Amino acid sequence: MSFGFGLLGEKLSHSYSPMIHNALGAYDYGLYEVTPEALEDFMKNGTFSGLNVTSPYKKEVCKYVELDPIAIKLGNVNTVYHKDGILRGTNTDYFGFLYLLSLSGINPEDKKVLILGSGGASDTVKSIIEACKPKDVFVASRKKSKEYVSYNNLPKDAQIIINTTPVGTYPNSYDTIIDLKDFEKCEAVIDLVYNPFKTPLLLQAEKLGMKISNGIPMLVAQALRSAEFFTGMSFRRYTADIIQELETYVKNIVIIGMPGSGKTTIGKAVAAATGRTFISTDEEIVKRAGRSIPEIFASDGEEAFRSMEQAVLKDICKESGLVIATGGGSVLRDENKDIIRCNSIAVEILRDYSLLSTEGRPLSEGKSAEDLEVMYAERNCHYDAVKDISVENNLAPEEVAKLIIDKIRRNSK
Ligand SMILES: Nc1ncnc2c1ncn2[C@@H]1O[C@H](COP(=O)(O)OP(=O)(O)OP(=O)(O)O)[C@@H](O)[C@H]1O
Ligand SMILES: O=C(O)C1=C[C@@H](O)[C@@H](O)[C@H](O)C1
Ligand SMILES: [Mg+2]
Q1: Which of the chain's termini has less CB crowding within 10 Å, N or C?
Q2: Is 78 touching ligand 2 by the criterion CB < 6 Å?
C-alpha cells in the first residue's frame, strides 16, 4: 500500500481537511476511511507520508507511533509524521482548541464548565479548560465511571458548555444532544462540530443570546500546525484567511424571497458565475411528487405541500457549496429557518411588486401589486429572520448575480 498525506478515520464524508491542506499547495492530501479491523495493517504496512487521525482512532493509533510529550500528556494523537526514520505521533488539536478559545472571547476562568463527550477531543479540551482555572469541570459520558456525569444528571448550573461529541455532524446535521432551555445559567456554547456550520445546539444558543463558536477555527488551526510537522514549513500566518475562505466556500448560497421575484433565475446566474451546482427546491418537490406545484396544492392542500417542502429543504440544505433556490413561502415555518441557516448564507431577492410573476404560483396567482404588497408586509419578518444579505433584482440576472457574489465576499470580511 502506498499513501501520501491524508486523514485517517472511520467515516469521513463530512471532513473539510482535504480542502484546507490542499489549499496550501505543498502536498496532496486525501481521505483514508479504514475499518477498525484494517487499522493495524494500515498503520504497520501503509507507506503513507503523514496522517491526521480522527474519530475513533486517536487513542488506538498511539500504539503504533513514537509519542512526543504533548501526545503522552493527552493520551491521544491526531498527527502522524516521519522524522529521522521514525514514525512519530503528536497532538495539534491542543493548539487548535487554544486558538478557538482565544478567538471566541469565551473565558472559562471561575466558571462551571460542562464538557459533553469523553473521547480524544474531550481529553484535549479538558486539559486546556483546567489550565484556565475554572470553578468546576464536568465531563458527561455514556460510559459509567466516577470521573463522568451521566446525561440523565447533567449539572444544570453549567455556565459554559462544550460539545466534543460528533452529535450534529453531517449527514446527521439536525441531531442535537441537549436542550439548552434546561441550562438557565449558560452564557456560552462551543461546538467542535464544523459541518454543518451551526448545529441545532449552536442555533439554539444563538437565539438564547449566548456566545457561540463552531469547530472551524480549531479545525483550521490544528490543520496548519499539522502541516508544519508534515513539511517543516510554517503556515500559521494563513490561519485567519483560510478560515474566512473556507467559510465562504463551503456554505450554501440559499436564495429566498417573494413568489415570482426571480429566485430561480438569479440562483442559476449565481451558480453559473461561481461554478456551483444549482438546485431548486420547487423542482425537487415536483420530481419527488411526480406532480406540478398547482396540482399538489389543489389535491393535497398547502400544509401537505409545506411538509414536502420541509423534507426537501432538510435533504438539500445540509449539503455544502450549493446554490439553492427556495419557494417563496419556505421561510414561513420556524423549523425551516434553522434548516436554511445551519449551513448557508441566505440571500433575499427584492423585486418591485408590479414585476413579480404570478402565473402558476398558487398563493399569488391573480393578485394585484397592492395585494402582493400586503403579502410582503405579512412575510417580511420571516425573510428578515433568515436573510444575511438582500439584493434588488432590477438589473440583468448576470448583473444581479455579480452584486450577490460581491456582497457575500464583503459580508464575510
Ligand atoms: N433580473 C431579471 N431580468 C429579467 N427577467 C427576470 C429577472 N429576474 C426574474 N425575471 C423573470 O421573472 C419571472 C420569475 O422569475 P423566477 O421564476 O426566477 O422567480 P422565482 O422567485 O423563482 O419564482 P417562484 O417563487 O415561483 O419560485 C421569470 O419569467 C424570469 O425570467
Ligand atoms: O474532521 C477532520 O477533518 C479532523 C478533525 C479532528 O479530529 C482533527 O484532529 C483532524 O486532524 C481532522
Ligand atoms: Mg423558483
Answers
A1: C
A2: yes
Q: Residue 39 falls within a domain, yes or no?
A: yes
Number of domains, the chain: 3
Can you give the pLDDT at residue 47?
82
CATH of the domain at 400: 3.40.50.300
Judgement on whether residues 285 and 319 belong to the same structural domain of the protein: yes
Pair 278, 397 in one domain: yes
Ligand 2 atom closest to Cα of residue 195: 1
Considering the domain architecture, whether residues 264 and 391 belong to the same structural domain is answered as yes
Q: Are 407 and 275 found together in one domain?
A: yes
Q: Is 264 annotated as a binding residue?
A: yes
Backbone angles phi, psi at 268, to 5 degrees: -65, -40
**Nearest ligand, CA of residue 330?**
1
144 is catalytic: no
Q: Please provide residue 92's backbone torsions phi and psi, each rounded to the nearest 5 degrees.
A: -100, -5
* Cα→Cα distances 185→113, 153, 412, Å: 11, 16, 31
H or E element that contains 275: none
Radius of gyration for the alpha carbons in the chain, expressed in angstroms and rounded: 24
Q: Which residues surround ligand 3, an ion (CB under 5 A)?
A: 263-264
Q: Which ligand is nearest to the CA of 78?
A: 2
Read off the DSSP letter of residue 149.
Answer: B
Distance 17 CA to ligand 2 centre (A): 7
The answer, yes or no, to whether any atom of ligand 2 lies below 6 A from the CB of 15, is yes
pLDDT tens by residue, 338-358: 999 999 999 999 999 999 999
Query: Which grid coordinates belong to 169?
Result: 455532524
> Do 186 and 49 belong together in one domain?
no
Distance 308 CA to ligand 3 centre (A): 16
Average pLDDT value for residue range 281-300: 96
Same domain assignment for residues 123 and 65: no
Q: What percent of the chain has pLDDT over 90?
A: 93
Answer yes or no: is the ipTM higher than 0.90. Answer: no
Q: Is 299 labelled a binding residue?
A: no
Domain assignment of residue 232, given as a range:
5-90+219-238
The confidence score (pLDDT) of residue 88 equals: 98
Beta partners for residue 390, in sequence order: 348
